Amino acid sequence: MDEELLELQRQFEFAQQAKSSIRLSERNVVELVQKLQQLGIIDFDLLHTTSGKEYITPEQLRKEMAAEIRKLGRVSLIDLADITGVDLYHVETQAGHIVSNDSTLMLINGEIISNSYWDIVAEEINERLQECSQIVLAEIAAQLQVGSELVVSVLEPRLGTLVKGRLEGGQLYTPAYVARVSAMVRGAARGIFVPTNLSALWNSLQDLLQETDGASGVAVEGSFFQSLFNGLVKEGEILGSLRAGVHWTPSVFAMAQKECVDSFLSQNSYISYEALQKLGIPQPVQYLQARYPEGIPLVTLFVHPSIIEMLDASAEDAIERGSWMDSLSVLPASFGSQDASKILSLCPSVQKSLKSSKAIILGESYIFSNGFVKDLFDHLEKGIETLNLPAFASTGQSDNLHVIKDASVRHDTLPESNETGTGKQAVEKGSKKKKGKFTGNTKVEAAESDPDYHELAPTKSKKNQKKGKAPTSLQLSDSKLGLRKDDRMEESHNAISEEWLIPKIMALIPDLEEQGIGDPETILVPLASYLRPMLLNSLKERRKAAFTQNAQRMKRVLDNLQHKIDESFLNIQLYEKALDLFEDDPSTSVLLHKHLLRTTATSMVDTLLLDLDIHNKLRNGMEVEEPQKPKKSEPASLSPGDRAALAKSLARPLSVKALALVEALEAKRVETFMTALRAIAEESGLILKKLDKKLERSLLHSYRKDLTSQISDETDPISLLPKVVSLLYVQIHGRALQAPGRAISIAVSRLKDKLDDPAFKVLADYQAATVALLALMSGTTSSEEDCTSDRILSKRELLENLVPALKGLVLGTSQPRLV
């Protein structure tokens, strides 16, 4: 074997020493290699070097790179490309293969680093750490020109072996330094006796370390302290509870909390949530329920069941005695009204009494027996019965409107009475604001209370009117006043107000202050609120009964009023036409207008207001005597004050229009009065008949016949003149003139062109003699009485002598006139 090897060596040496007969250029060699690759003789990859004079296989490149890595431990790919003389691309490719096949290598940021390199670095770091006690990883990363994360990932598996230290918060600490800081954390934590935020504690420890280590010290992160603290808590060297990672409650404080809560609760049987919050317990309800499952949480307090037992006994006693009790007077002063309300609802006797309707709870903390409340209600109800019901008229109409609206739909229900209150306050405050909306709807109520109403009442269509079924005032009032139901409903509840009830209750329960209630309003307000609906319902029922009884009478009053209004309104329209003859004389026209307003119009308004007042009283359940029918010669007469008072007593919409009608009596034109009259008629549902030609002729005939009869029977020479003048105007102009004494002379002068001279002379002489007589009568004094009486007698005799001639002007068969 050795001989063969030696023979081969000799042949190789001989081949090297032999001179070639053919020399190849570099280009020929390159072409030759390419040709061999094409022929497949060279079946492996070849890489060009950067010099272009050499070829290298990938396997050889990997071997050279691996050798360089083992030699240096950390080498960049750029340096490997320079060392091997191969393009960087091929180096990067082969580097990937090398690192993937060798787990001890890593490719980081264009560098291949071996574990041996990191071991050497770890040893160096450990030597430095032992010298400095602490090192910041950011500095090491900067020196090694790598990222801090890489340094951490490399050091963590070597901690405790190659690196004798602790890694925390981006810093390395020696065990001695860790023990030192742990001792500081332990001492600081054990010195805490109240709940503390650990972040503030760590700041204090950082300041202390900086003072101790001086400028050479490295700032310690709070996470390092927190980690040490968590370890101490886990080992049981520090006792307490940690909440949300930073809120520390020492066990000594928790024990003090528990003892304080237990002590207070055992002594008082209750404790407030506020007290627990002051003790540092953030969720007092959950804390108390967990510790005392038998306790009862209230709104602001946590109580022991013994409190309920005590209150239950007092409440049961008050209910059995038929009295009342303020639970706050039994409970400790710390209890609020909401707490009292909740704890009352938990008392067994109270629950039983509420279910059996033996008691009620008012105002959160007051419990009343039903017997006590019923007695109080009975007294108040009797007090309301003795009140003057018209005091409620200003507000008593609204609820009836609502009821009538319902009654018009159901037909089988009686109209409800109003929910009202009474008293002087209701009259004084409501006199201007709450005026009658009742007239029209009262008519509806009267009609609907009549069982025959729905069969007889005609509709408002023109078809029915043509058939003789004209709509009555009852129907019109329903359509007019039913629209204001909502406004009146709101007013009705203000009649019996809580403010009105409170002094009444005080008068019936004078011992409120004696029983220790500092502010009686606290109990009176809820009690009044509870009693008010009951009193309103009682009043409604009484009024419903009274209304049912008065329904037929109310209907008669309205029917009679309609008849009176028809007659008066036709007369005033007839008299108004005569005023047109004097429109060219403003002063006389105003005089005639005022006279008509003060006579016929005033009488009509008095009748209207009196009947509406009777209707109002009947509607409100008052006892009204059947009025005596006045004689035809004695029409109803009221003073201006009486008219205003009656107008104000009506409900609001009607009252406003009634006051406007009363004020229109003092106007200068009849048109103003007619407008106000139509407004109140529309509001109350009355119908005003318009004067047509046929009615006018009929009324003029009756008026003329009546005047003729009066003139024939008249014996007073002074009263005769205006009647004769009026009859002359009927005969000549076809107008019914109503003229006062001051306008007679103007009226006479207007007849000059209508009478022949003898007739006018008789009229003028009679008028002059009448004026002279009246002047003498008005100017008589005590000193001139004898002389004047003679002159009066002589003038009267003169007039009496002229009476036949004057009567002959209008009563004769032929009446002298100008053609």
UniProtKB/TrEMBL annotation:
<feature type="domain" description="E3 UFM1-protein ligase 1-like">
    <location>
        <begin position="558"/>
        <end position="691"/>
    </location>
</feature>
<protein>
    <submittedName>
        <fullName>E3 UFM1-protein ligase 1 homolog isoform X1</fullName>
    </submittedName>
</protein>
<dbReference type="InterPro" id="IPR056580">
    <property type="entry name" value="Ufl1_dom"/>
</dbReference>
<dbReference type="Pfam" id="PF25041">
    <property type="entry name" value="UFL1_C"/>
</dbReference>
<dbReference type="InterPro" id="IPR018611">
    <property type="entry name" value="Ufl1"/>
</dbReference>
<feature type="region of interest" description="Disordered">
    <location>
        <begin position="411"/>
        <end position="489"/>
    </location>
</feature>
<feature type="region of interest" description="Disordered">
    <location>
        <begin position="621"/>
        <end position="642"/>
    </location>
</feature>
<dbReference type="GO" id="GO:0016874">
    <property type="term" value="F:ligase activity"/>
</dbReference>
<keyword id="KW-0436">Ligase</keyword>
<feature type="domain" description="E3 UFM1-protein ligase-like C-terminal">
    <location>
        <begin position="696"/>
        <end position="809"/>
    </location>
</feature>
<feature type="compositionally biased region" description="Basic and acidic residues">
    <location>
        <begin position="621"/>
        <end position="634"/>
    </location>
</feature>
<comment type="similarity">
    <text>Belongs to the UFL1 family.</text>
</comment>
<dbReference type="InterPro" id="IPR056761">
    <property type="entry name" value="Ufl1-like_C"/>
</dbReference>
<dbReference type="InterPro" id="IPR056579">
    <property type="entry name" value="Ufl1_N"/>
</dbReference>
<dbReference type="Pfam" id="PF09743">
    <property type="entry name" value="E3_UFM1_ligase"/>
</dbReference>
<feature type="coiled-coil region">
    <location>
        <begin position="544"/>
        <end position="578"/>
    </location>
</feature>
<keyword id="KW-0808">Transferase</keyword>
<dbReference type="Pfam" id="PF25870">
    <property type="entry name" value="WHD_UFL1_5th"/>
</dbReference>
<dbReference type="Pfam" id="PF23659">
    <property type="entry name" value="UFL1"/>
</dbReference>
<feature type="compositionally biased region" description="Basic residues">
    <location>
        <begin position="460"/>
        <end position="469"/>
    </location>
</feature>
<feature type="domain" description="E3 UFM1-protein ligase 1-like N-terminal">
    <location>
        <begin position="4"/>
        <end position="288"/>
    </location>
</feature>
<keyword id="KW-0833">Ubl conjugation pathway</keyword>
<keyword id="KW-0175">Coiled coil</keyword>
